[in-house]
Amino acid sequence: MKIRPPVVLRRSVVAMCIHAALYPQMAAAQQAAQEVAQDSQIEVVTVTAQKRREDPAKVAMSISAISGSQLQSQHVNDITDLTRVVPNISFTAATGNGGAGPGTSNIEVRGISSGAGAATVGIYLGDVSLTVGNVYTMGAVEPKFFDIDRVEVLRGPQATLYGASSMGGTIKFVPNEPDLQERAFETYAETSSLRGGGMNYSASAVANLPLVANELALRVGVQAQRAGGFIDQVDGDGAVLAKDINRVDDQEVRVALKWKPSARLTVSPSVYYQKVDAKDISAFNIELPEWQAQKQIREPSKDILQTATVLVNWDLGWADLTSSTSHFKRKFDRTQNGSAYNSYSLSTFLTSTEDGGTAPPELIEAIAALPSAVLLNNRVRQVSQELRLASRPYIADKYGQALSPWTWLAGLYVSNQHTNINENDPIFGVNDTFAQFGFSSADPDLLPDARPNAFPNDNAFMGIFHYHEKQSSVFGEANYYFTPTLHVTVGARYLKGTSTLDQQNGLYLAGAGNNSSARLSSHAFMPKYAVTWEVDPAHTVYGTVAKGFRLGGSNVFVPPTTCGPDLEANGLAEGPATYAPDSLWNYEMGSKSRFLNNRLSLNAALFYAKWKNIQQGVYLPTCTYTYNANAGNAVSKGVEIDIKAKPLPGLTLGAAGGYVNAELSNDEGIQNGVIGAVRGAKVQGVPKYNASVTAQYNFAVGGSMSGFVAGGVQWVGPSKGSLNPELIDYERPSYHTADLSGGLAFSRYKLSVFVKNVLDDDTVIQHPQVASIVQGYRVAPRSIGVSLAAKF
Q1: Distance, CA of 28 to CA of 34 (rounded, Å)
Q2: Local structure of residue 74 (DSSP, 8 states)
Q3: Which member of 350, 609, 628, 746 lies 3.0 to 4.6 Å from 579 by CB, making a disulfide possible if both were Cys?
Q4: What is the pLDDT of residue 9?
Q5: How far apart are CA 702 and CA 106, in angstroms?
Q6: Mean pLDDT in the chain?
Q7: What angle do CA 311, 314, 320 make, to 5 degrees?
């Protein structure tokens, strides 16, 4: 007799069979549902603004975080592109008299703009501080966007955790870390054509290699790029001597290792190398036909950056200990066309026979027409060490109880930075020109104060400058949670710094010459206070009060023989040896909200900053020297808004914008010789607003293929390029750019086509002064290109 299984067992077996048959379809459907849900939500880019990995919505400051993939898909290639898509960031193309080329720009945040003294924005590559001062026409370090996980823009003073110079804010370039588990090889190639110019290209390859599973991994990457030129060099008759002279080539190499010998200890050494080779600056003569430059001397530069860092993270159980040891070097060699002021200045020392002197007018004209160069060799090297001890993050149980209502972070920081600058200003052919007219350049009856060997090898000026800056500080922050949703933050940094300048200059244009030293010591206490209230898990409001600070420094010697009348006009017998620190207080309140299950986000912030004792550059128009002085106060106030939305799966919309009104609040500047520095004058280099809108739609094409279309428009408002209303750069116009892209993703590949500056906006947005010649600067012309990315 057959025994039939019970009904319940039979039904269970049938159910299991049905489940087994349908499981792949159910799993696929569930995965698809999860992907749809994920695609319906806004991407959240985790940040380390407070030296911890956090959701930016929970951090009490105004932050913009852009992932590396977003930078690549939007073709944001450099800092100038970044300033057009992130609220209240701006750039000035040339520092001082230095000329609109790579490595000469100033970066400004929230209207805290100064082309003199120390930097107002901190620049970091990972944990390495790359912040350098506005020294001798040398601008901010600009790391390339290569193998970047994200860029974090922290607005407002960041002195507590990032030290001096982070007055307006801090920009962090955070590289990708080696992955201990996944072996991957990524490549990217791009080419495009500039309207009326040359070709652009970019090619990169990155390999991630786990050497010992879950313990040791190596990440290696290389990149080579070219930004095509569009400015032509012409002679006095308008004939083209060279085309596309402002081409820029760059190469990058990055090697990073991650070693995790135990679950609690991680050691991460890394090195980075970057070389930017610019064939000329990106400025043109505004009186000539479009995009032409007339110059006797080409103005190339080569900017090499090297960094090395060892980051150690040790989980002590009760706290996390972090050590960051870093070293960076910058070698920045450049040439400026000095013909307009070296040769001309020398000619003014000659008195014509027509005026009772001994110099024939033809000799004076010949000297004024000689070509001259300013040869600058800049070297920066820095060693720094930071130690941080951070408590466990605040975690509450389901009943709202935590082990401790306190979280804290404490640290020590020391740095030692040397900056060496050598300048030589040859006037080519000067000795031969005097000889051709039967004279000697060493004749004091012809050339006042001339002496033998005044122009060795035709050199008219020699300067050697050694800046040395040392900092040491102790810092910390503490958070107290009254409830899991309400906490206060109190932080501070105490800093001591010394700045010295040893300088030597000589030869004819240095007058009597100089061999001197100057030293300045500074110290500061920089507190921060904040209140954060999580109204609910999706809505946070906050308020902060924080102090920012810049170290003082020493001035380059101003020769009284050639600059006496200018100094006298400012009430001085000689140039000041040093300038003092400046500081500001920033008051901010903001909110960060997410709606509709993270399909809509809205972040907004209001700020008001009082800036005291501003470091300003005082330009001496006759002798073209500049010295730094503390001149006046300013107020900067404004708002930032950032909106993102995903109204439909696959469709992402974004809008971001900032408004800032930064102006001087007293007349101390003009009393100290800064022309135009009166109460109510706008701080230079600060656009009244900037805004951007973006849209991207991802869609399925069929099978395993998907496609996307994207576009964006950026607006930058008008600004003042100078305090002096008589200068051409005083009025900077508003401008806008637009970008479009689209492509397909299939298998391991992503192919896209793109257009940057679609409408080819050719507004002359700035008028940099290049070696005493006012020139023009514009956004790069329209480019049309194609890119291919692959991952294996």
Answers
A1: 10
A2: T
A3: 628
A4: 33
A5: 48
A6: 90
A7: 105
CB-based burial label for 54 (10 Å; 0-12, 13-18, 19+):
middle
Can you list the pairs that 771-774 forms with residues at least 24 positions away whose Cβ atoms lie under 8 Å?
771/97, 771/99, 771/336, 771/337, 771/338, 771/339, 771/340, 771/341, 771/374, 772/97, 772/340, 772/341, 772/624, 773/285, 773/337, 773/340, 774/286, 774/727, 774/728, 774/729
CA separation for the pair 631, 618 (Å, rounded): 9
Q: Record the tokens describing residue 775, joined without a space.
A: 């020139």
Task: Report the range of poorest mean pLDDT among 237-251, 315-329, 560-574, 629-643.
Answer: 560-574
CA distance 742 to 746: 14
Share of the chain above pLDDT 90, in %: 72
What is the token pair recorded at 377? Answer: 């060799």
Number of neighbouring beta carbons within 10 Å of residue 556:
21
Cβ(472)–Cβ(494) below 8 Å: no
In a 10 Å sphere around its CB, with 0-12 CB exposed, 13-18 middle and 19+ buried, how is residue 695 labelled? middle
Q: Which amino acid is at 160?
A: T
Residue among 206, 218, 215 at smallest CA distance from 269: 218
What gap in Å lies between CA 669 and CA 715, rounded to an integer? 31
Indicate left, alpha or beta for 477 from its phi (over 0: left) and psi (-120 to 50: alpha).
Answer: beta
What's the pTM? Answer: 0.91
Rounded to whole angstroms, how far apart are CA atoms 225 and 204?
A: 9
- Is residue 104 classed as helix, strand or coil in its secondary structure? coil
Give the closest residue to 713 by CA, choosing from 657, 776, 773: 657
Answer positive or negative: Cα dihedral of 439, 443, 448, 452: positive
Question: Does residue 727 have a pLDDT over 90?
Answer: no
Q: What is the DSSP letter of 61?
A: S
130-151: pLDDT as tens digits: 998 888 778 899 999 999 999 9
Name the one residue in this structure whose structure tokens are 């596309």. Answer: 244
Question: Which among 303, 374, 375, 311 is positioned nearest to 343, based on CA atoms?
Answer: 374
* Residue bearing tokens 């400026």: 336
Which has the closest alpha carbon to 780: 73, 78, 53? 78
Cα 171 to the center of its chain, rounded Å: 7
Instruction: Summarize pLDDT for 338-388 with one digit per residue, the tens.
Output: 888 899 889 989 999 998 899 999 999 999 999 999 999 999 999 999 999
What is residue 92's predicted lDDT score, i.e. its pLDDT? 87
What is the rounded distance in angstroms from the CA atom of residue 536 to the CA atom of residue 614? 41
User: How many whole angstroms separate alpha carbon 424 and alpha carbon 136?
Assistant: 13
Distance of CA 58 to the CA centre of its chain: 25
**Can you tell me the distance from the alpha carbon of 714 to that of 373, in angstroms, rounded to the nearest whole number?**
38
pLDDT band at 541 (very low <50, low <70, confident <90, very high): very high
pLDDT at 771: 64
Q: What is the DSSP string of 701-747?
A: EETTEEEEEEEEEEEE--EES-S-TTSGGGEEPPEEEEEEEEEEEET
